[in-house]
Amino acid sequence: MSDLSLAARRYRLGLGMFTEGVKYFAGWIVAAVVLAFLVPFIIGQWADVSQSGWYHAANVGKICTAIVGGGFLYTMMPTMIAQGVTRRELATATGLFGLLWSAALGLVAIAGFLVEHAYYGLLDWTQGIDQDTPLPLESYGHAFEFAAHYPLVFALYFTGGALVSAAIYRSDSGWLVLIPVIPIGLALDDLLSSSEPWGPGWMVRFVTGLADDVDPWIGAVLTAAFIVLGAWITRRLILDSAIRAKQA
Fold first, then answer.
1. Given a cut of 70, is residue 67 above it in pLDDT?
2. How many domains does the chain have?
3. Of 40, 146, 185, 208, whose CB neighbour count within 10 A is largest?
């Protein structure tokens, strides 16, 4: 029984990281939901609303997910290992945490677009995505089709954040992994979405056009492949990392 309990510890740890992460960021998530629906209502008192507030909130969620994936791993690794958690357990737990977080936040994103579609419909607003030329989501089916990629894209950002964090912890020059990870991540995000590329202006110019005439299913396959590869590299970095002594 003790052996079985020890084998399952990594999964309990991953579940615990997820539940504690949700508790820690619950206030931020609620605030994002409130603002995404409140700000358009305020704007609607003086002007026609033609853009989805939830679209912007969901994009912010991508960055937050990368921060969660990287921040939790970087800060918790030395403490957990010092308390007897093995590197293999931590790697598995982080992977489970990422899957649960991405799935949960992805479902919230999908539900948000559907609720917002009803909300905008009641007020006769246009649920448009993109900033320059809003693409209207004209039906619940259209809204769901657009939002369906969010669980996968959140997993993409979580993996990218964890990979960068593990590389930085592993080596002082690990931050160089940002050079390939950021453009690849934004390009894959662009492939998955039917909206315009988003992000820093110089990076948007780099990825603009990469998704032209590319089937979204190809984008999904490439994204899944990057997630698997990134997770494997992150695991190897965790297993090879030495615990750093604190500086006096």
1. yes
2. 1
3. 185
